[in-house]
Structure formats: structure tokens, C-alpha cells
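Note to self: the last two entries modelled the partners one at a time, which told us nothing about the interface. This time every component goes in together.
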Amino acid sequence: MKKVMPLVRVQLWAMIAGFFAIGEQRKKKTKALFVGFAFFFLMMSGTSFFYAYGLGTLLNTFNIINALPSLFMALSSVMVLFTTVFKVKGTIFGFKDYDMVMSLPVKNSEVVASRLILLYSINLVFVLIVMLPMTVAYGIIANPNWVFYLYSIISIFLIPLLPIIIASILGTVITYVAMGFRYSNAIYMVLSFILFFALMIIPFFMQGSEEAFAKIHQVISNQINNLYPLAALYSRAVNDYDLASMIIFAIISIVAFMVFSLVVGKSFVRINTLIMTGSHRSNYKLGELKTSSPMKSLFKKELKRYFASNVYVMNTVFGMLILVIMVIALPFIDTNTIVEGIDVAGAVEDIIPVIITFCISTSCTTMASISIEGQNLWITKSLPVSVKNIFLSKILVNLFILSPGLISTIAIGIILKINFVQSLITILTVIVFSLFVAQYGLVINLTFPNLKWSSETIIVKQSTSSMISIFSGMALVGVQVALLVAMGSSLIANLIFIGILLILNLLLYKRLTGRAIRQFEKLY
Amino acid sequence: MLRIENFSKSYKGKRAVNQLNLKVDGGDIFGFIGHNGAGKTTTIRSIAGVLDFEEGDIFINGLSIKKDPVGCKKISAYIPDNPDLYEHLTGIAYLNFIGDIYEINKNDREKAIEKYADAFELTSNLGDMVATYSHGMKQKLAIISALIHRPKLLILDEPFVGLDPKASLTLKNIMKELCNNGSSIFFSTHVLEVAEKLCNRIGIIKGGNLVTCGSTEEVIGDSSLENVFMDLIQEKM
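The predicted structure of the combined assembly is written out below.
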């Protein structure tokens, strides 16, 4: 075991170094970034608290407040499950420093343990963000016994264990099956999206009233308890202060984790060898080649690079997916009831642009488009292509990914019969905001590049660049909402918002055709 | 074909290359030799337009890499010491991408790919993803991609590392063929026997300074390149 911790430490530091990789400014900005990370943690916890408190209050009015802890436990378990499935390849199997780590005088089981502890540590942070605020919210609303707090806090450390195992098994199976296909990523992503769609779309087809809302959660809570027996154990432990359930919950989680570590340890080298060998056909015969213009070819290369990374796609395409789901679901739901139900001032037409811009703000691909070049940067830099065209290809890919936003906007306008002027303004907002997101992401990534990453997850999810670009986009959505509230008229508010975005776009264009070129040239 | 004038490059205040001046003419095979950290890769990356530099200038066929990088890159090709290629593409997709960027017409592209892929025995693997290639196969693919647009200047950093003996011989023959057709080659190597036999001009760099440069005969004299190199390295230590 004494060799496990140094391995975990070195991997955690590599991850943190990746997070704080800000080139020449690394030392200067580290302190500021720690503050930023703390701010992020507090902000996410705050959001989690308000959601837990809001939902708890609603559940309390229907006398089903006891469902809150198990709902949040299920939510964190699903979150761990989803995020870990994508991390298995690159963390447990097929990781970049495999050869180096395996050549060390360390047992296979110790390497596996270090990898699993790494996965556990990352997930624990997110479970803490979800579960701690819920515990506080539940405490305020339900005023439970001290046993609740004790069991809740112990449970937080146990919750990630089983989802990590399930996700690791699923991730391994998917990776293993996909190895047989040349375009395995496409199959992998389609399956994942089908699952996501199923989870997202079910609540949309249910009634939109408060009572039904509470019932949905109760039904889901019961379903979760049936589907995921650990949730039932957890629920009995924290709600009924049942010591036996708590002990069984702890034993199952810990023993399962230990058994899993041993099993993986036994097949670790074999699975890694299979994954790293890949699929060879070696039967290619030269045929006719299709030619393209340099710009089109650059665009296609960028797009292929984007779709080749599961973690990149999964983290930047959900906003657009939500919009598509919304368009599909809109004809089936009574929008006015929802708006009244969630007590938001204003008409649906006023809220639609905000929802769309929010979804766009989460779909920035350019924020990692420079970093993702990594060790391949020499190819881009040695090609006879101007830096402006390289930037353009990256921006075009982002606009292409954001294009469902524009199509959805038009479709929503037609479905909801929004008047022409308002529709036109929303379309304009979507266009200028998309352009902003694509340009801004690129500028931020050029300022905070990380070309020496060991895993794509680091640059897509845990980098300074991704954090800044996504939260800045969201902040702008906040400006949009503030304008809406301050102006009273959505028309004037959106026109001012478009004006602000146009100015920002011009400034970003100036930057991308000036200083950003020099920043790119200096990268190595 | 290649002219380096007063080129210097520093990393965080440390001088990697200092006031380098050299010239490579059409038809030359120039061997750039030096120990680890001498400044070879820095020079090569700067010639290829991959590395930014402040002092001096580098001219390819009369064009400045600083003022007209695209023009310079159109007539040159670069292969790094460790070619990390796009792993998400198949070998043929990568070659076709390079063909598109250099705007090589369809016929010439197909002929060149066939010629060089056959020469390096890589044709049957071109349909596989680059991610599944071995180091040597990636090296071969990088070499093919550099050759298909018939560069006037070929810049190679340790091109023989990772190649099997047959592929090394093929590469040497192609290098000679290119130079016979008027192109120039600038490459770094640690294999002194190869440099001695293959190059008509040699430059030795030490601590960022060019310590000797000239025709192979002038540099070697009656000795061997290994002896000359060792003498020069020990001389000023």
C-alpha cells in the first residue's frame, strides 16, 4: 500500500498541474486560480443548496420531504456513473503513461488501486458539492435527529464507490466492444446520447403542474429505490436512522470496491494490451482520392478531431441537445402552465432567448481547440496555411456545432407562433452570441493553452480555459436576464444585448487578427 | 535554397542558439551535427516555421520565414524527431489532408502516394488509424507526407531513428534522388557514419554556436567525422 499513495500523489499533481497550466504565467496566477477554484466550489454548492432547498420546500408541502436525500443520492450516483464511464478509458485503461508506470517496480494491483483512488477523489469533490448543501437544506426544512447528519456525512464518502464500479465495467465493455470498429467513437457516442435522451425526455412528457412535479419526484424516488437497492438502504439509514441499513450500505460499497480492484488487477495488463493494440486490418488498397480546398480540408480535420474525442463532444454538445429536445417536446407541453408554475415574470417569448443563449454558452468548442492540438501542434504550425485560416477553421467548427441553436430558434418561433419582429431579434441574438462564444473561447484558449496534457479530460473539463470561457458565457446570459428585468421590454433589452455582443465581437475579432496571432506563433 | 543569418534563440534568458549563419545550396545534403541540447532541434524547428524567434532571419528560396511563412512552408517540408501525427485519422486520410493543404492535384497526389507508400511498404496499412501505428510506421507516414508535394527544401530532425534498415536505405536513396533533382536537404543526426557517407556538406553545433561548417571533405580532412566531432566537442570543454 505504501507505493499506492506516491502514485496517487503524482497523478493528482499531474491533474492539478493540467488544471493550472497557464504557460509562462503559471507561477503568477496560481494563487488567483486557487481562489477561482474555491469560488467555483462555493458557487456550485450554493446552486446545489438553492435547488435542494427549493425542491425540499415543495416536497415538504406534499409531506414527502423524506424523498429529498435519496433523490440527491441518486442524482450524485447518476452523475458519478455518467462522468466516470467517459473517464475509464484514459484513467484505468489506455492511459498515456501506461508504459512508464508499468515498468516501475510496483504490483499491478497497486497501480489499479492508485487509478481507482484517483477516480474516487475526483468524484468525491462533485458528490460533496451535491450532497453537503442537500444535508444543510434538509436539516433546515425537516429538522432531523443528529443521527441523520452523522449517517449523511459518512454516506458521502461511500456514495461514489458503487457507481464508479458500475461505470468502470460499462466503460470497459464499451471500450472493448468499440475496439473492433474503426469508427468506434460514433457508436459509443450514439449509445450514450440515446441513454441521455431517454433520461431527459421522460419528465417533459409528464404533466407540468406542481402536484405532478412533486409526484414525479416521488415516483422517480420509488423507481430509484427499486432499481438501485443501495438508494433504498441509504434512504432507510438517513431517514429512519436505521443502523443495520447504514452498515449494509457501507459493507456493500467497500467490499464491492475491494473485489473490483482485485478483479481488475488480475486482468489489468490483458485489457490494456487489447485496448492499446487497436484494430488492424492491413489490407488497404490504393484507390481514387477525393480532393478538397485547403480551408475545407482544415475544417474537416478539425471536425474529425472534435468527434474523435468522446469527452470533448459529451461536454460541449449537451446545450444543443437540450434545445433539440425542447423543440421536439414543445408541441406536447403547455408552456404557459410551466411559466406560471415556476413563477417567472414575463411571457414565454421573453424567456426563450435566455434559454437558447444559455444552451449556446455551454457549447463552446474553441475553448479547448488549441490545447487539443497537443503534441500535434507542429503539424498545424508547419503547414502552409495562415494563422488566420487556422483560427477560422476552429471557429467554423464551433459555429457548425452551434448551428442546431439557430435551427431550433426558428423552429421554436414557428411552434410558439412568436411574432416576426421578436423572432428576428431572437435569431439575431443567437447569431451574434454564437459568434461571441466561438471567438471568445479561442481567445481564452490562446491565453491559457495547455499543450502538454496527459488526458483530454484535463483540457476539456478541468482547465482554466474551459472554466473561464463557460462561466464568462453564462455571466453574459446573466447580463441578458438583468437587461430583461431592468428594461421591462424584451425587445429593447434584446436590442441592447445584441449591441453589447456586436461590440464584444468586434473587439474579439481585432484581438484574433492581432495579438492572438503572435500568441499562436509563440506556442511550442 | 536555405540561408540562415545571425539567427539566435533564447529560452527564458538561456541562449539555445547564438548568432548562427549558414547557407545550403540547391542539390546539397547538409548534415547538422551536435550533442544533445546543442541547439539542433531549435534551429530545425525555426527553419520549419514551427518555433518563433526574435533575432536574425531565415530565408528559404529567398523568402523570409518571418515575413512570408506561408510562402516558405509551401516549398519546404518538415519531419520532427518524434512525429506525433493525427491519431484520429487513417494513414490515407492524413496523406490526403496534406495533399489538400499543399493543393496537389489528384493525379500527382495518387501517383506520389503510391510511389512512396510502396517504397516504404506502408500501402496495406494506410487504411488503419494512425493511433494503431508503431513508431516506425508513423515515421514512414510522416516521411511520405513530406515527400508528396515535392519540396524544394526538406528539413528532417533525426530521420533515421525508429526506421528499420530497409526503410533507412530507402530514405537515403530518396534523399539522393531529391537532391539530384535540385532540391536541398537539411537534417540532423547522431549517426555520424550516415552523415559522413550521405552529406556533401556538414555543420557541427556546440552550445548553440556553429563550430565548423563546410564540405564533408573540408570538415573531415584525413580523419573521420567521429574523430573530428569528438575533438571539437572536447576542445572547448
